[in-house]
Every structure is written in structure tokens, then in C-alpha cells.
Amino acid sequence: MAEKCKSNRQRIGCFSSAVIQALGLDIKPGTPIYIADTNIEHMKASHPADFEKYGSDISSIIANPDYVGKNIADESIEFTKEYYLNGDFVKVAVRVSLHNTYYARSMYILNPNRVKNFIAKGTLIKLDKTR
Hints:
Layout: E1 9-14, H1 17-23, E2 32-36, H2 37-46, H3 48-54, H4 58-63, E3 67-71, E4 76-83, E5 88-96, E6 102-110, H5 112-121, E7 125-126
Parallel strand pairs: 2-6
Antiparallel strand pairs: 1-2, 3-4, 3-7, 4-5, 5-6
């Protein structure tokens, strides 16, 4: 019997027209975003406290980010949510696989000063939620 090669994946969101327009992406609105067991394990291993605090919010961050950006270094699309109550900026990075499927690859709390610098430089764009 063949071993199961693919890890379980689930759809956790999709790209909105507002995100696509803000970043000039060449994809269709509604393009799905997935998360797989390996992605979750990576997040838990790399940023365990951040994942414990915000891991259950990944779908919500993708659906309703305050800021979006493109990371030129690794071609990831960044969804960032500001949690006003505790001052955290939480980033979910989504990357496309070799099979042209988008996966949430990492999630962690950003340094607020870096966020302000990214906004000032224009690498993080405030999402216009009226579109």
C-alpha cells in the first residue's frame, strides 16, 4: 500500500479584489489560500508563543487585513492585522507553491517600529476597506 505523500490541507481564505488591486497581483478574485499540516507545524516550531496567541485568527487576518504587502525576497504576500487592544501587529505570509497553489506559510507578531518603517516606505499598504 502506498504511503500518503500529501499532508492534509484546508482552505482558510481567498484573495479579495481589494488585496489584488492594492498589490497589483495577477490572479483572480476568490483564488483560494490553503494551510497544510506542515505549515502549522512550521508556525508552531518557529513562533510558538505567537501561534498560541493568534493561530486561531489566521483565517480572520487573511479575510480582513489592515495592511498588505509583497515581500520581494521570498515572493510572499503579507496580510497584517493590527490588534489595537494589545498593540500587536500580526503578519500571515502566503506563498505560492510550485503547483501554483497559495499556502499560509508563516505567522508571527511584528515589531511595531518595523511596521511603522514598512508603512513609511510603502512596503506595507493600508487596505482601503471601502472597495
